[in-house]
């Protein structure tokens, strides 16, 4: 089943601080393109920004909406619509085995799955799609870094979110697995918002935002935005 087209994420004057230090400073943007990149130095605020998209972080001021729904008031709905993949997949693997971890994502959504997860055909389909079928009963935390990241994608995408946010999903991967992640992202019907330090991954994206000191410093096509970011990093 192909997810319904996403109506996008909108941010209106979003501010947030940690320990009194501003991390996001009045960010306003409408994120409607199918493939959007977000880049910035470590500590620039880009990961905090991404976490506001589904309520993992609730801003101190301003509003974030998904398809018109205020994330602050409809956090559960936002998390159904916006899937999130982290840089370290180990942090989002919860269940003992590979199949159980995928099956867990379906629970609470009116779907039944046994402890092994194989009873739900969607679990088996997701494992097969991401090359994990033969690892269904393997302890999830004993997988390689690349396999764990594939499991993270399977566990998120099995729920068919409208939007997929990926926060540096290739950081811990070798070249082979990085290319596999690129292939997965390129083939998705969902809107994809990718945070990355691997700038060449953004070459064919629709739009790239450069975050600097909690603000959008540049919002442009990939070549212009990446060029701006390189100049910013060189200063």
From TrEMBL:
Reply yes or no: does the keyword Nucleotidyltransferase apply: no
Q: Name one Pfam family in it.
A: ABC_tran
Q: What GO MF terms are annotated?
A: ATP binding
Which InterPro entries does this entry report, sorted A to Z? AAA+_ATPase (IPR003593), ABC_transporter-like_ATP-bd (IPR003439), ABC_transporter-like_CS (IPR017871), ABC_transpr_CbiO/EcfA_su (IPR015856), ECF_ABC_transporter_ATP-bd (IPR050095), P-loop_NTPase (IPR027417)
Q: Where is the ABC transporter domain?
A: 9-234
Has the keyword Protein biosynthesis been applied to this entry? no
Q: Which UniProt keywords apply?
A: ATP-binding, Nucleotide-binding, Transport
Q: Which family does it belong to?
A: Belongs to the ABC transporter superfamily.
The protein depicted here goes by the name: ABC transporter ATP-binding protein
Recorded source organism is: Tsukamurella soli
């Amino acid at each position: 089943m192909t997810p319904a087209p996403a109506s996008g994420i909108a941010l209106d004057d979003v501010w947030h601080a940690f320990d009194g230090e501003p991390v996001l400073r009045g960010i306003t943007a409408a994120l409607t393109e199918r493939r959007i990149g977000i880049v910035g130095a470590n500590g620039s605020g880009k990961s905090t920004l991404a976490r506001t998209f589904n309520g993992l972080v609730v801003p101190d001021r301003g509003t974030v909406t998904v398809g018109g729904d205020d994330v602050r008031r409809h956090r559960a709905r936002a998390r159904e619509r916006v899937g999130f993949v982290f840089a370290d997949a180990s942090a989002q693997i919860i269940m003992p085995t590979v199949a159980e971890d995928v099956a867990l994502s379906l629970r609470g959504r009116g779907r039944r799955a046994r402890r092994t997860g194989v009873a739900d055909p969607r679990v088996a389909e997701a494992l097969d799609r991401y090359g994990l079928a033969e690892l269904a009963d393997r302890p999830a935390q004993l997988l390689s870094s690349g396999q764990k990241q594939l499991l993270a994608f399977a566990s998120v995408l099995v729920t068919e979110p409208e939007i997929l946010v990926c926060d540096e999903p290739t950081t811990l991967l070798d070249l082979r697995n990085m290319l596999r992640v690129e292939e997965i992202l390129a083939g998705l019907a969902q809107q994809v918002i990718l945070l990355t330090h691997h700038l060449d991954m953004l070459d064919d994206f629709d739009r790239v935002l450069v975050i600097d000191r909690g603000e959008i410093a540049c919002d442009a096509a990939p070549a212009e935005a990446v060029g701006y970011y390189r100049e910013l990093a060189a200063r």
